[in-house]
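hiii, so i know i said id send this last week but things got crazy w the move. better late than never?? heres the sequnce for the chain we talked about at the cafe, plus the structure i predicted for it. fair warning i was half asleep when i ran it
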Amino acid sequence: MVYLTFFLIRDGQKLIELLIRALPLGDERERLLFAKFAEVTRATVKGNLLIAVIQGALGGLIFWILGITGALLWGVVMAVVSLLPAVGAAIVWVPAALYLAAIGETIPSLVLTAYGVVVIGLADNLLRPIFVGRDTKMPDYLVLLSTLGGIVVFGINGFVMGPLVAALFMAFWGIFIREFGHEAHLAAQAEAADQEESVSRER
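okay and structure toks below
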């Protein structure tokens, strides 16, 4: 995901210009689509960073409460690894919980395990739809479903690609409704006018 994000940030403008020239949709529609592309990419990257910071802070807090040495450092490590969905903060707190259990600290181990699963683990699923959906104006449930679906289809990169595909689909759908809905409305008005004219002639 970090690898993909780097190239999207570095080469995103060039990709947009290339695709605008290639797609036969008309400049206005193309720029609308790619404005949505840039918007969702920025929102997803920002959301990932915010969630990583929050998960790192939550992890560092519970380490400090339990008296684990280097709580601040481990919190920073959890924030960094939280950017890697296949790894996540669990790569830090799970070994810590096992270590506590191994040295006989059963209650702290159980507390850390429960906290890691419920608080740190669910923070991603609860906060991602809020952070990404707020900036992209996508419903929370759509952000969550598109993220999960993106992970299934694209793997780790699905964290970015899932919401992006969903947002582009919504943009395409909006263009379709606006264009064809307007044409259908004009056709209905023309048909109604013809009917009124026919009735007036019969009279």
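btw The two ends are 71 Å apart (CA to CA). thought thatd interest u
miss u guys!!
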